[in-house]
Amino acid sequence: MKIVDVKRCAFNSWYHTFESYTQDSVFIDLPEDVIASLTNGEFILPKSAKETNGRLSDRSDDDDWSDGSDTDENHRMRPEFPQFESHLKNIIQDLGGVVFPKLNWSAPCDASWMSCDGSLKCKTFSDIYLLLKSSDFAAHDLTAPFALCTDTSVEQTCCLFNSKPILVLRKWYDFRPEGEFRCFIKSKLLIAICQRKCDAYFKSIEEHIEDIRHDLMEFFNKKIKNRFHLEDYTVDLYREPSFLVGQSIRLLIGGSQA
């Protein structure tokens, strides 16, 4: 795996090619002060954060909130990004009021425990910030995304190689886990498929495995195979759970390096 391969897997490298097959998304550059706040060693939430007992809030950023334990001095230390927060608020509204956040490559899935429902559903900047701040996956994207590349030297472990960190906000959909599949591509051939949620059994998958295989392979061969520039990778697809063959397929995540 080389640096150029990882860059090709970045969301902004493939999204516009496959935009018509995935949910609406908006990506923007992360400001330097936001990056610095997310990557420093202190766990301090921004001033706009709402009282949540350490978990994501269902309340709006417009709600009033005060914390008796938050002294004036501590409040002054908490970061604030008014222009960036206002911009994100408008994007969230344009995407229906609920979004799924990720960075160039990774979503903060390892921080889903911070959410009341265990999902990555976000309604406010505070929700997004808390997930990213709590995530090792996000920290890796921001500080050392090319650390394991074969052409990265030890001295370059934390080098970003001109890769600008971005924040991706994707329109939220309640995807059913039995419809999510991971596809493994080797030498541009789809060689294996498995369900994404590997710790659960879905009877519908077993009952309709041939239809599922047919639909996923057909979608890959027609829509992805000759349009993505890597030879070996994984891609996550969603097939609406149904007994019908020929169900529509949606691209969940593309370009994950295998």
From TrEMBL:
GO CC entries: cytoplasm
Gene Ontology biological process: cell division
Composition bias type Acidic residues, residue spans: 60-71
Record region (Disordered): 52-77
Organism ancestry: Eukaryota, Metazoa, Spiralia, Lophotrochozoa, Platyhelminthes
Keyword annotations: Cell cycle, Cell division
Presence of keyword Cell cycle: yes
Protein name: Cell division cycle protein 123 homolog
Family membership: Belongs to the CDC123 family.
Amino-acid biosynthesis listed as a keyword: no
